[in-house]
Structure prediction request, 105 residues.
Amino acid sequence: MGTRVLLGNHFCLQAEDMSAKEQMKDVLTMLDESMNHAGVTKEQLIRVDIFAKNYNEEMDQEWTKWVGSENLPTRFVCPMGEPRFTGVCVEVTAEAFVCWKANAK
Prediction:
């Protein structure tokens, strides 16, 4: 048994002066912080959705560096419509599955 943990809508509020690569790195750092707060590890991620104005090689390199090579979650990259805030070019949401451990008596 377990539960799904949704980690949604990570984006840079002060994105106007940041490159797409910088925004991607910053958003993944925010995702790390949310995961730590929720007690979730990268190994428990089952899906990551990346909404980007123009997903490029530099952004992909940041993703690859962040995610590592083991226990890869499903990654969905989708074109982003008009962002809610000026300058935002990437938004990331994630979903994890956390197994409950039975208490031994």
